[in-house]
Amino acid sequence: MSAQKRIAKELAEVTSNPPAGMIIGLVDESNVHNWDITMDGPEGSPYVGGKFKLLLTLPVEYPFKPPTINFKTRIWHPNVTFDEQGSMCIGILKGDTWKPSSRIMNVLIATQNLLIEPVPDDALETSSAELFKNNRPLYEKEAKKYTAQYAIGK
Amino acid sequence: MAEHDLEVQEALARDFQPAMEGPLVGEKRSSHAIAEEYAKADPIYVAKTAALPQKYSHYRPILGDGNCGWRATGFSYFETLLALRDAARLEEEIARLTSLNNLITTVGGVEEWLFEDMVAETISLLRDLVTTMQSSPDAAEQLLLQRFNNPEVSNAIVYHLRMLASAWLKGNAAIYQDFIHGDLGVEGYCKEWLDAPNQEIDHLGIMLLIDVLLKPVGFAVEIIYLDRSAGSQVNSHMFQDEEDGVPTNPGSPIIHLLYRPSHYDILYQDRSASLPLQQPVDDVVRSSDIQVNRATDFTKHQIVQGSTTTLNDFSNLDMNSLLSIPGFCPPPTPSHLGFPAQYTSIEPSYTGSQLSASISPVSPARSPGDVSNLSVSAGFPSQQTANLISPTLPPQHPAQNAFPPSNTQIPIHGHGPRLHPISPSLPAHPSLSPHAPDPSSPSSASSFRPSKYEWEAAADWQEPVVFQTSTFKNSHYNTAHYNNPNFQPEEWNPESEEAESSRGRKRST
């Protein structure tokens, strides 16, 4: 029961005062473990203008195990797999660095920052990571292209 | 740590596989099981584990899920609190742990709403133990085990402990920072070792947890290290409040943790349950006083316990066997001088007994000056003896015929076997075997134990003493004599005692 209480409090925090450019709700009102998030591509990133749907899943062991985030909208990004899964790798959510005292609010803000500042050393997609490191203009161009293709007007 | 040691430790860590499935906190079981696990292992292990059950009768396995050290310590905290059977103490702990929330928020830097649900599990367990304990201590123990095996509750409590340790470190960084390996720093150490939910407890973590959780409530912790260092005994280290190396609270409950490389289990020293054959007798003993098991303590016991209730309880035990131990008499020490007064004070409650009046030729008012020369019979006034025996006599028994007053001392003290018909409690003999006070038994919580070392001594004495025949009972091969500090085998000689009889005895000055 304590997991649900904690999740309810976290949900109340992020819905009453969501980070800029995010809409947060439950996928299914009867299940607090799956959150439906719509995130605007942040200013200052090649993803601006896109609307990305994310699924945040809270395990039953939450908060002792970290939540996971999947991009339901395809995104071309070094730290997100470019497939249907859209798995995201971010330091705060790794099993060995996750702290049960972390807040979902911070996870969402970190996700937004990841779109602005990818972490190529921790990449899941090597091709975009290479471009990000070695050919930034080409990276931006590719990212914008895929954003337009998958995340705008959908 | 030397590199070689590290290699050995790593090798051991590979060898030993803690349980990865099963309950988070297992049932208490005989520690012989540990020895069996290692039966085919390295000879040093075999020797160490073979010696283990002699000192620690039971152990409780903890699941090796990365939280075992935290969980073992946490469980022991609740279990030891529960064993005190003191509701006020539990209430104090509820207040103390609630007040420590402040430490977690202000020093630990965690917002209260993020951890209040975890603390709530700890507090609610304490509260439920208070209420359950009063109706049924057994049910309270079951409740504790059940909560600790509910992953959600168990993990919440464990994480509460982690946050306490983490905040305690941040608040007392100066004391502990030298224990942090490498260049992690306090913040880095907290993040990597304490705040991560499945990170095994390390040495500093245990120190922190003991300091924040256990020392304030007065519990000591002994960690028994089962490693491959030389020797046939396990190494152990005691964590407790000390002043110049002397424990400030020597009678405090002790939590025993068994450490094997990267894993913790709980050990117990209570011996009562380890010898199931003695169970019925132990119950009798526990209801009177645990000390009665030890012949060496009998004399002390007389001094401490002046109440008639206790003496009546003795009637359930077979005192004849004690009397028949040669040389069993109080030592000529200063403490002994208190005896006559002691017996005099008891006297009024027994004067009504026809039997005692008829068979007490030895004056209880014997002056203290005679004390050093008292023989068996005199050191143990027959009046006392008669009272111990009388409850076992049928009321209509012709007592005076069985014990002619003029002849009292010899049959009682010299010829134990002749008393057997009136000692139906003879099967109580096994109760003379050693067993350390059971920390979970209510009587031990209040019993007077002047020093923790006495407890250790009791635990070290292993072989159960079984009197098989009266001949053996009196034989110098009977190891029970060694527990009598006054036993001097060369002084006892059946012939000379016969010859002396009452004549020689009374003449001695």
At a glance:
The complex is a heterodimer of chains A (154) and B (509). By secondary structure, chain A is an alpha+beta fold. Helix content of chain A is 34%, strand content 18%.
What's the structural blueprint in terms of helices and strands?
The complex is a heterodimer of chains A (154) and B (509).
Chain A: H1 2-16, E1 22-28, E2 31-40, E3 51-57, E4 68-71, H2 104-116, H3 126-134, H4 136-150
Antiparallel strand pairs in A: 1-2, 2-3, 3-4
Helix pairs in contact in A: 3-4
Chain B: H1 3-15, E1 29-30, H2 32-37, H3 43-55, E2 58-60, H4 68-83, H5 87-99, H6 101-106, H7 112-135, H8 137-148, H9 151-171, H10 173-176, H11 185-194, H12 203-214, E3 220-225, E4 235-239, E5 242-243, E6 246-247, E7 254-260, E8 263-268, H13 279-288, H14 298-304, H15 308-314, H16 319-323, H17 339-346, H18 354-358, H19 376-379, H20 382-389, H21 399-402, H22 409-414, H23 442-446, H24 452-460, H25 470-474, H26 494-507
Parallel strand pairs in B: 3-7
Antiparallel strand pairs in B: 1-2, 2-8, 3-4, 5-6, 7-8
Keywords (chain A): ATP-binding, Nucleotide-binding, Transferase, Ubl conjugation pathway
GO molecular function, one term (chain A): ubiquitin conjugating enzyme activity
Protein name (chain A): E2 ubiquitin-conjugating enzyme
